[in-house]
Automatic annotation (TrEMBL):
Topology in the lipid bilayer: Single-pass membrane protein
Residues spanning the signal sequence: none
Transmembrane regions: 26-47
InterPro entries per record: Glyco_transf_92
Organism: Harpegnathos saltator
EC numbers, comma separated: 2.4.1.-
GO MF annotations in UniProt: glycosyltransferase activity
Compartmental location: Membrane
Biased composition range(s): Acidic residues: 560-586
Lineage of origin: Eukaryota, Metazoa, Ecdysozoa, Arthropoda, Hexapoda
Protein's UniProt name: Glycosyltransferase family 92 protein
Pfam families the record matches: Glyco_transf_92
């Protein structure tokens, strides 16, 4: 600070002047801190809107603030990705001076420093009382992208879950608390803005007011952000030990950037203790947002339960989905209004927000959750169902600490010729089933974690990724399922475009044929039922045997196969580049994907 100059120069002779100057510079420092603290304080507590609408007597302060912006607030991110620049600047001073002013002390004494209200378990009741009340007309949502207003960067919230498994917040205060409310959100990857959680508790006497507690939120960016500007994230609200009502867990939460601004979102807190069942179903499937026109969705076979996110779904597919929804086999959740550009600003429609939303949504309803795409099926080789396979493995090895089972990826390129058995199909629906039509796959499987998919016990997982689990509840891990037990069948076109991929070494794999009859019958029934209602397109007729296929499969064993010696072209760099392009090309394979015939559906049906 400028005052330091007082100590140097030629004024050594006059100790009195020196002392005076030192005092003055001390006063300047104090004043600077006071003004700075005031600015910070107004920023946090008094200024309502960025528009500068002044509230009550704070208009003068509001004027001071015009044109001023706080440097990026110091955050405490969890992960290494957040660069050092995010810590720069205000660290320390911000907390201290807010503390001073909140306590109404006139500053100057370093010993009088009080904690930042962000460090408190919750805002003191005197401050809470001055914050806007909840507008009872504000809609309570449980799955809808809504903006957090007054932020400098885009900030959206989707859903909220009570989580009492670990203190996800990591701070000692939270560790002793009741747990956290996790809000599935999307915002800036680096240096996300500070936000607050306004927790709304139900009044037990039925009064039409909602008691509130406000806590500082912690923004935890979901690790798979691909270095894009925005990421899916968790906004973590540590619950205070003292609840203002008999309910320990709030009914809803609003995420706000400015405390004095009226909340614009009111999200239902799910996974409350009373909503959890002891009787979980076995397996659910989560599918990332559908963001293509899915009109040639010929048959969508009900799985045990499938959760999908509706971004852009074509009419016929939407109709079929509604049918499955009415049978409670499918949940379609809206995925609109996430105003971030896919791939340029955020990874694939906020895929990781969807995965984690589905993870938490399923947590107390299903024992296992498979996080897959519509063109992927986990097919056990020897067992009939995934649940049988998991049980069988559970009997042979200790899977107590297994939180996830990983399955290696096998591409079944759609450019490879149809299986000759297709000509034996009894119905056009059967002939159209992709899992029966495409039986040639790449011999070489991808290693685990590369394009692999997994089935997890959602209760053991904190943060789900696309190909593997990022974070487990401590003491849990992934089991790599050997490829002779089960693999991931992935039906798609060449991942790098063109047709070259089909030159790689391939194998015929008819494992899916064990589901042939059940699958065909079930799909045919549904197709017939929905054809008129959903104006489903005409199906291609069952192909007839063409002279091109030399060996007739009729009446022969499964061994009948065209023995083409194919040149193995193994491009090594492939693996590295692969992930970059991954989801992009997946999107438009959709028009060729015919079924969501996960055998998991069979699993439940058989168990009942
Ligand atoms: C509570 O307030 C809302 C909005 O003002 C109103 O629509 C509702 O009827 C009220 N409910 C009760 C029980 O008073
Ligand atoms: C998907 O969203 C669109 C647009 O909001 C809506 O019209 C359609 O009914 C939704 N489809 C399903 C299956 O929910
Ligand atoms: C699952 O597969 C294993 C290995 O072939 C077999 O021993 C076991 O009996 C199967 N279990 C069921 C329920 O099919
Ligand atoms: C994907 O398919 C849709 C509908 O057929 C089309 O409008 C869109 O341009 C395609 N996108 C790409 C990247 O090919």
């Amino acid at each position: 600070m400028g005052g330091r100059r007082a100590g140097s120069g030629g004024s050594r002779a006059n100790a009195g002047v020196l002392k005076e100057r030192a005092n003055m510079s001390f006063m300047l420092v104090v004043m600077f801190f006071a003004v700075f603290g005031l600015i910070v304080l107004t920023e946090i507590f008094l200024i309502d809107e960025r528009r500068g609408v002044s509230v009550g007597g704070t208009g003068v302060l509001g004027g001071h603030r015009s044109g001023h912006r706080l440097p990026a607030a110091p955050d405490r991110p969890d992960y290494g990705e957040v660069g050092a620049e995010d810590y720069a600047g205000l660290k320390g001073s911000f907390d201290e001076h807010v503390g001073l002013l909140v306590r109404g002390e006139d500053g100057g004494q370093k010993t009088a420093i009080h904690p930042d209200p962000r460090g408190l378990p919750s805002l003191p009741p005197s401050l809470e009382a001055r914050l806007p009340q909840l507008d009872q007309n504000l809609k309570v949502t449980h799955a809808e992208w809504l903006p957090v207003t007054n932020t400098r960067f885009k900030f959206f919230v989707y859903s909220a879950y009570f989580d009492d498994r670990v203190s996800g917040a990591g701070s000692p205060a939270a560790a002793k608390s009741l747990g956290v409310v996790r809000v599935i959100s999307a915002t800036k990857t680096r240096g996300p803005e500070r936000v607050w959680c306004r927790l709304w508790y139900r009044q037990q006497n039925g009064a039409n007011v909602t008691a509130s507690v406000t806590v500082a939120a912690k923004v935890k960016v979901i690790r798979e952000n691909w270095n894009l500007k925005y990421s899916a994230c968790f906004v973590i609200c540590p619950l205070p030990k003292e609840s203002p009502t008999a309910d320990k867990v709030p009914e809803a939460v609003s995420v706000v950037a400015r405390l004095r601004a009226a909340p614009t979102n009111r999200i239902l807190v799910q996974n409350r203790l009373e909503s959890r069942t002891n009787d979980k179903e076995a397996l659910a499937v989560c599918v990332k947002p559908l963001h293509y026109y899915y009109n040639r969705l010929h048959r969508l076979l009900g799985a045990t339960h499938v959760t999908l996110y509706n971004d852009t779904v074509g009419a016929a597919a939407g109709c079929a989905l509604k049918y499955y929804e009415s049978k409670d086999l499918v949940t379609v959740l809206p995925w609109h209004h996430l105003d971030m550009i896919s791939q340029r600003e955020i990874r694939t429609e906020g895929l990781f927000a969807a995965l984690n939303d589905c993870l938490y949504r399923s947590m107390y309803k299903y024992e296992y959750v498979a996080l897959v795409d519509l063109d992927e099926y986990i097919i056990p080789r020897h067992n009939d169902t995934i649940i049988d396979l998991l049980r069988w493995m559970g009997n042979r090895i200790n899977i107590k600490s297994t939180g996830a089972f990983s399955f290696q990826n096998a591409f079944f390129y759609l450019q490879w010729a149809d299986d000759p058995f297709v000509v034996t199909s009894r119905t056009p629906t059967e002939a159209g089933l992709i899992t029966l039509r495409k039986t040639r796959r790449r011999t070489k499987l991808h290693p685990h974690k590369q394009r692999s998919k997994y089935i997890c016990k959602p209760q053991d997982v904190v943060e789900a990724g696309n190909h593997f689990v990022w974070e487990f509840i401590p003491g849990h891990g992934t089991l790599n399922v050997p490829s002779d037990a089960a693999i991931l069948h992935h039906y798609r076109v060449c991942e790098f475009g063109g047709d070259d991929c089909i030159k790689t070494q391939s194998t015929v794999d008819r494992t899916a044929y064990k589901y042939k009859d059940r699958l065909a019958a079930s799909v045919d029934r549904t197709w017939t039922e929905l054809r008129a209602e959903c104006s489903l397109p005409e199906l291609d007729p069952v192909p007839v045997l063409t002279p091109r296929i030399k060996v007739s499969p009729l009446g022969k064993s499964v061994e009948v196969e065209v023995e083409e010696e194919e040149v193995e072209v193994e491009v090594e760099e492939e693996e590295e580049k692969e992930d970059d392009k991954e989801e992009e090309e997946d999107h438009n394979t959709s028009s060729r994907i015919d079924t969501l015939a996960d055998e998991s559906r069979m699993s439940l049906r058989r168990r009942r």
